[in-house]
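Entry under discussion copied across for reference:
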Amino acid sequence: MEEKLYHINLSKSDIQGAKYAILPGDPDRVPKIAAFFDNPQKIGQKREYNSYLGELNGEKVLCVSTGIGGPSAAICIEELYQLGVTNFIRIGTCGGMQMNVKAGDVIVVNGAIRMEGTSKEYLPIEFPAVPDLDITCALRDAAKKLGYDYHVGVVQCKDSFYGQHAPHRMPVSYELENKWQAWIKGGCLASEMESAALFTVCSSLGAKAGAVMLCVWNQERAKAGLDRDEEHDTEKAIKTAIEAIKILIEGN
C-alpha cells in the first residue's frame, strides 16, 4: 500500500498529479472553495488538514486547510511538495492597517513582514518573504477582472493574535506597539498570520506561492472613528484565487 504522509494523510495517488493547491486556514472553508471546482471530492481529513481534489480548466487542483499560524502551514506545504505540488495560493483573512483599506476589500500580497518564528527556521531574517511574481500578477489581474476593490502590497505576519489586539497586556508591549506604528508608516496594508511562512518555505523549496486576503475589518479606521464595519464572507478572495489559477493554467 502506498504510504500516506504523516500529518496531511495523503499520498501521491490521492492527489492524482495535482500541481496547484489552494490553502485556506479554516477547515470549514475548504468545501466552500471546492464548490468552485469541477468534480470536487473529499480525499482526506486529519487534524487541521481537510483536503479536497477537483479540476479547473482540466487541471487537477487541491484545496487543503492549514489551521492557524506558520508552523502548521509549513508542515502542509512541505508534505504537499513531497507529493508533487509546486504552486500554492493562500486564501486568508486579515485586519486592515491603512486608512484606505476597508472591510470587504481584497488584498493581493506582494511581500510579508517576518514578525513570526517559522520562517526563521528556513532562511535568515535578512531574506525577504516574497511571493512568485506570476502568481501575484494573476491574482491582481483576477481581482481587477472581477471588479473588486483591491490593494496590492505588504502585510504583517505575526504569531500572536492577541499580541496584536491587546498589546498593552504583554510584557513586550513597548516593542509590539512601536513596531505596529512603524509598519503603518511603512505602508503595510494589513495583518495576518501565515503568508511569511508560506513565502519563505516555498522559496527554500523552489516552489511558487501567492496569497490573497479578505479584509475582515480595520482597527485603525475604528480607532479614528471612521467605521466599525466587518465582513466575514471570503467569497471575493475565493473567486479571485479561482480566477487566478485559471489565468495561470491558460498561460502555460
Remarks:
- DSSP finds nine helices and nine strands in the chain.
